[in-house]
Design goal:
Layout: E1 16-20, E2 30-35, E3 38-39, H1 52-55, H2 75-85
Antiparallel strand pairs: 1-2, 2-3
């Protein structure tokens, strides 16, 4: 995060919790990460969906500009597919 700046730069997540210390030095603030209430398995692979801005390293999330696997589908395609799939006539 960018604490103590007024814009802390915290990500918006679902099914993920991040425990941090604002008193630690930048780069060492994250103390624990939970996914679905369980500690992250460092040997597991996780799927991340994000927008183009963050994927390009926006808001300082430069670790996202080097994906291990990228499906290359644009946000517009994913949103269109979702809307078609969940369309209730």
């Amino acid at each position: 995060s960018r604490l103590p700046d007024s814009n802390g730069g915290f990500p918006q997540t679902a099914n993920m919790a991040i425990v941090y210390s604002r008193f630690s030095e930048p780069g060492n603030r994250i103390k624990r990460v939970l996914i679905n209430g369980k500690s992250v398995d460092v040997n597991a692979k996780y799927t991340l969906a994000t927008n183009d801005f963050l994927a390009a390293g926006g808001d300082g999330y430069t670790m996202l500009d080097r994906p291990v696997v990228m499906y290359g589908r644009g946000l517009d395609e994913v949103l269109t597919d979702y809307m078609v799939k969940h369309n209730k006539k």
